[in-house]
Amino acid sequence: MAEPSSEIERPRAGILLTGSELVTGAISDANGPWLARELGALGFDVVHTVIAGDRPDDLRASLDFLVTEGCVLIVTSGGLGPTADDLTAEVVAEFAGVELVLDEEVRSHIEARIAGWARRSGFAGPALDAATRKQAMVPVGATVLPPTGTAPGLVVERPGGPLVVVLPGPPRELRGMWPSAVAAAPVRALLDGVAAPQELHLRFYGTPESEIAHTLADLDTTGVEVTTCLRRSELEVDLRPRPGAEERAQALHAAIIAAHGKRLISADGSTTDELVAKALLDRGWTVATGESCTGGMLASRLVDRAGSSAYVAGGVVAYSNEAKTALLGVPAEMIAEHGAVSPQVARALADGARDRFGADVGVGITGVAGPGGGTEAKPVGFVCFCVTSSDGQVIGRELTLPGERQDIRERATDTAMHMLLRVTGALPGRD
Amino acid sequence: MAEPSSEIERPRAGILLTGSELVTGAISDANGPWLARELGALGFDVVHTVIAGDRPDDLRASLDFLVTEGCVLIVTSGGLGPTADDLTAEVVAEFAGVELVLDEEVRSHIEARIAGWARRSGFAGPALDAATRKQAMVPVGATVLPPTGTAPGLVVERPGGPLVVVLPGPPRELRGMWPSAVAAAPVRALLDGVAAPQELHLRFYGTPESEIAHTLADLDTTGVEVTTCLRRSELEVDLRPRPGAEERAQALHAAIIAAHGKRLISADGSTTDELVAKALLDRGWTVATGESCTGGMLASRLVDRAGSSAYVAGGVVAYSNEAKTALLGVPAEMIAEHGAVSPQVARALADGARDRFGADVGVGITGVAGPGGGTEAKPVGFVCFCVTSSDGQVIGRELTLPGERQDIRERATDTAMHMLLRVTGALPGRD
Q: What CATH number was assigned to the domain covering residues B274-424?
C-alpha cells in the first residue's frame, strides 16, 4: 500500500440465497448476480454469496458466517412462501432476537390481492387461509416492504448489526421490491456516507488473460482491484478503485488500452449486444437472419432488447435443406455440390434472408452443432458464417468451435454478433 | 422422527465458487448447479454453495465455514488461471498445510498443449512462460487431474478432512475434468459406502404451492425432505428420502399424484422439453414455428436438444407485418382488420409455418412483449397462441402474461411448449 491513508475500505455486504432447489442444483439462481450488481453500484463491497437449503440450522449458520466476514448488510432472497419449508422470516427473527407476530394489515393485503384468483381457480379455502396467515407473520419492529407478489419483504435491524433485508425468491418480485428496500430508513441510514464507486471496464475480443497480466506486472495497481474474466471469446477487464485510488484506476485503464487497443471492443463496459443495437440504429439499418445450426438463437438474441423492432426485420430457421431452398432461395444444386455446411451456403443464407425480409444486413450461419453429423473435413463444431450488407460488404468466416452442442451454438451466435458489429463499422479496434 | 434408527444422514458436501467476477455479479455462475446435481447423484448432501472473490482471506474463510458446516468434501471451481488473482491452488495448499511445488510434467504438458496457438497468435514469450509456470504449481502430495484446458485440477487431502477437489472455472473444462475427479483414489475412498439416493420428482402445470403443502399436512413425511419450486407456470416437487425412508417417499409420491393428477405433467422428473421431443418422435411428426414476440426463442428451444433435426422442420421469425405476409402468407387484410396481435393472426402464423415447411404441427405466437406497444385492449404481456396439426387439431389460447419483456417472452415460449405437448396427446393429466 503506497498511500494507505488516502484509501478507504468500502462497507462489506453479503447475499444469502435460500431454497433447497438452489442448493441441490435443481434450478439456477437468478437473484445473486443481480443483487451483487445493485449492491456494488450503491458502494458496497460484496464479500460472499451463500446458498443454503430450507433448513433452519443451515440458514442460521450462513447468517453467522456473513457476520464473521464483517458484513454490515445482508440481503436474503427466498423462503417467504406459504409452505413449511419457507423459513426465512422465522430464522431472521431469531437471529435478530425478536418474536414473529401476525401483521393484520399485511394479512388483509394478501387476501385482497389473491381474492380474484382464489375464486376463479377454486383454490379458496382453509389451505389458502393458512398460507396467507403464514406469509403475514413478521418479526417485531421490522420494516415491512409492500408485497410485489404475495409475500411482503422485511428490513430487520439486529442490535449491533448487521442489517438484514429479506426479499422474496421470484426474480420479478425481488426486483420489484428492491427500490422500496433501498428507500427504507434503516437502509438509507447505512448508505449515508457511502460513495458510489467509480468502476472502469474494458472488453476485448480474443485477447488472452496472460497478456493483461503481463501488462499489469509493470504497473502500480495499489488500491485498484483488477479482475479479468474470459467469457467465451470475449475478455472482460474490471478495475475497482478503493475511494482515493480513482486516478490510478484511470491510468491503468489507459495503459491497458494503449497495449491492447487493437482488439478492443469497448472501453466503457458496453456489451457487444448494446453496441450492435446502437450501430444498427445509428445507421438506420435492419437485419435479417438465416440460421441453421443456431436454430433461432441469433434472432432471439437480437430481439432480446426492447425496441429491437426498429432494426430486426426477422429471420428464418432453415434446419432442413428443403427449407433453405424454399424459404431462402438457396439453390438445391449448391447444397448438393458444396454441402449444406459450406461458405457458399452461408453466403446464400445471408443474401436470401436480406432479400426475403428486405433488410440492409443479412446473416447466414450453417454448421455442425453435434453430437452427430461430423465428418473428417467438417467435424462437430465446424461452422460457416457470412454477413452481407446493402452497401456491398461481404464478410465470411469458417471456424471449428470447441465444446458441446449448446457451447457451439452459443459461440456461433457470439461470432455472428461480432461480425455484425464489424459490418456496421462500429468496432473501435483495428483487428 | 418415527424411526430414527433406520435413517442415516448422507455425507455433507460444499461447493466453493471463486472469482471476483462472480461475487460482483459481473457474470452468472454456471458450475454451481451442475456440481450440486452431480454431488447429489453420488449420494452427498450438498449443504452450501459459497461464492468468494479472488482474495486469499475470503477464500480461506469460505473453506473454514464449510468445515464448520460438517462438509467432508469441498469442490472448488475457478482461480486456476495464469493471472495474479488466480489463487485457489495457493489457498488450498495453505488450508491443507502443505507447500506448492512446480510439477515439471504438468508444465511441459501445458507448454505442448498451447505451443501451436502461441506460435500462430504471436503471444509466445516471457508472459506466456510465466503463466504456464504458475499454472503448473501444485500442492505437495496432491493428485493431479489432467488439464482439459490448460490448468490441471487437483485433489488435496487435508489431514483430518475435508477432501478438497479443485477444478477450473470454465464450465466446459470443469465438466470435462469431473470424471477423472470422481475416479481419483481419495474421492473413491470417500464414496465407498455412500449409496446413491432414490429421489422422486413430480411436475405440475398451474398448481399452487399451497395445495401441495395442504396435501402434505395430513401425511407422515418423516425422513423425507419435500421441496416445491415454482418455475414460471410449472411446479416442481422433489422428494428426497434419507436412507431407510425410501418407501415413505414412494407413498408420498403416490398420494400427491392422487390429489393433483389432473394437472400432472410428469411423475418421473421428465421435463416438458423432453416430453415434447419424445412425443413428436413417437408420432413421427415434425414441427414448424411462426414467431413474432418470442423472436426465435421457441425455435431455439426446440433445436436445443441433440437429434432435433428429426422433428424440427424450421421456423420463421416474422417480426414485421410485411414479413408475416411475405414469408408465412398471413393476409395483409387480416392484420389490418384484427391487428397483428390477434387470435386470427396466431392461427395464420401456425398454418403458414406448417404449410411453408411442410410440417405436421405448426405453432403461431404473436404478442406484445413490451415495454412499449401496449394498449388497453392488448396490454404489454398480451399474447395469442395457436397450434394446428395435420390431423385437424386447432388449439388456441390468449393470455396476459406478467413480468418484463424477457419474462413475457420466456413464459410465452413455455406456454407454446405446453400446447405442443397437449397436441401430441402425451399429457398424463386431463386438464
A: 3.90.950.20
Nearest Cα of chain B lies from the Cα of A135 at a distance, in angstroms, of 11
Question: How is residue A160 annotated by DSSP?
Answer: T
CATH number among 3.40.50.1820, 2.60.40.1970, 3.80.30.20, 3.40.980.10, domain A9-191: 3.40.980.10
Instruction: Report ipTM for this prediction.
Output: 0.76
How far from B356 is each of A252, A323, A331, B359, B386, CA to CA, in Å? Answer: 56, 8, 17, 8, 16
Q: Where are the domains of chain B?
A: 8-191, 200-266, 274-424
Taking Cα atoms as reference points, which of B268, B265, B316 lies closest to residue B429?
Answer: B265
What DSSP assignment string belongs to B415-426? HHHHHHHHHHT-
| Residue B15, phi then psi, degrees to nearest 5 | -120, 130
* Residue among B23, B48, B358 whose CB faces A46 most closely: B23
Residue A104 has pLDDT above 80, yes or no: yes
Contact A26 B229 (CB under 8 A): yes
- pLDDT band for position B7 (cuts 50, 70, 90): low
Q: How far does CA B266 lie from the centroid of its chain?
A: 18
Q: Among the CATH numbers 3.30.70.2860, 1.10.1760.20, 3.10.50.40, 3.10.129.10, which is that of B200-266?
A: 3.30.70.2860
HSE at residue B283, side-chain half, CA atoms within 13 A, is: 22
Residue in A with minimal Cα distance to B50: A50
- Tell me which chain A residues have a C-beta less than 8 angstroms from the C-beta of B82: 209-210, 213
Mind telling me how many Å the CA of B120 is from chain A's nearest CA?
Answer: 13
Find, among B233, B245, B241, B232, the residue nearest to B201 by Cα. B241
Smallest Cα–Cα separation from B54: which of A177, A226, A145, A381? A226
The architecture that CATH gives domain B8-191 is 3-Layer(aba) Sandwich (3.40)
SS3 labels along A253-305 = HHHHHHHHHHHEEECCCCCHHHHHHHHHHHHCCCEEEEECCCCCHHHHHHHCC
The pLDDT-based confidence of A149 (bands split at 50, 70, 90) is confident
Per-residue pLDDT at A215 exceeds 50 = yes
Residue-wise pLDDT for B399-426, tens only, equals 998 878 988 999 899 999 999 999 998 8
Place of cell 504458475: B134
- B219 or A404, greater pLDDT: B219
- The highest-level CATH class for domain A272-423 is alpha beta
For residue A392, what are the contacts with CB-CB under 8 A and spacing of at least 6?
Answer: none
Is it the case that residue A1 has pLDDT exceeding 70?
no
Instruction: Give the pLDDT of residue B2.
Output: 36
Average pLDDT, chain B: 90
CA distances from A373 to A358, A379, B143, B278 (A): 33, 8, 37, 20
A385, A412 Cβ separation under 8 angstroms: yes
Q: Which residues of B touch A32 (CB under 8 A)?
A: 25, 28-29, 51
Which candidate from B26, B36, B291 shows the least CB-CB separation from A236? B26
Reported confidence tier of residue A429, pLDDT bands at 50, 70, 90? low
User: In A, which residues are within 8 Å of B130 by CB distance?
Assistant: 210, 213-214
Residues of chain A with Cβ-Cβ distance to B20 below 8 Å are 225, 227, 238
φ/ψ of A277, rounded to 5, equals -60, -45
Residue B57 to residue B267: CA distance in whole angstroms: 46
pLDDT at A339 over 90: yes
